[in-house]
Amino acid sequence: MPTVRAATPSDGAAIRDMLAAAGLPTADLSASAVEFLVAETNGALVGVVGLEPHAPAGLLRSLVVLPQARGLGVGAGLVSALEQNACSRGITRVVLLTETAEAFFTRLGYVSAERASMPPDILATAEFRSLCPSSAVCLFRDIPSS
Ligand SMILES: CC(C)(COP(=O)(O)OP(=O)(O)OC[C@H]1O[C@@H](n2cnc3c(N)ncnc32)[C@H](O)[C@@H]1OP(=O)(O)O)[C@@H](O)C(=O)NCCC(=O)NCCS
User: How far apart are CA 90 and CA 111, in angstroms?
Assistant: First the structure.
């Protein structure tokens, strides 16, 4: 199973490549305060997930697992690590938009909600304002505080 660790600046190009290959937004990455976790096997990245912290909520974004590494639990492991990381920083609600992985997140305990019911800081993110089409589903999970 891959190791999950915090990304470093030297991971930036590989992260952008993974996101672009999966058709996920990269346009705002320089301007947004996204903290990435990466999954790594034998020194090579196989997955990534990002958190935009806006305590007490956080935006989960940029989740990708390389096609050859899918179906092995890497995606679920990245989401779990992100939730633990978020929880330790006082984030009690993880929110996301998805066009492709609603069923994946539902299995992990996420439930759908109206976008407008999310906290103002989340609604103000580039992903909510402009990067994700209105057809994207809004999901959230309340994580118990540690
Ligand atoms: C969504 C994604 C990250 C899942 O990664 P993964 O490592 O394959 O996921 P896991 O192996 O942890 O899957 C956990 C479970 O969810 C299921 N699952 C995985 N992707 C799914 C999807 N898109 N829809 C429904 N179920 C899915 C798996 O079959 C697995 O079920 P199991 O426990 O019964 O075997 C991966 O498919 C991916 O990178 N997709 C392209 C990018 C994308 O859509 N990202 C989401 C943007 S919000």
Answer: 21
Q: What domain range includes position 92?
A: 3-142
pLDDT tens, residue by residue, 36-55: 999 999 999 999 999 999 99
First-last CA distance in the chain: 26
CATH number of the domain residue 67 falls in? 3.40.630.30
What residue owns the CA closest to ligand 1's atom 33?
73
Check residue 133 and give its pLDDT: 76
Q: Is the CB of 70 under 6 A from ligand 1?
A: yes
Higher pLDDT, 33 or 51: 51
Q: Compute the distance from residue 57 Cα to the ligand 1 centre, in Å.
A: 23
Nearest CA to ligand 1 atom 41: 64
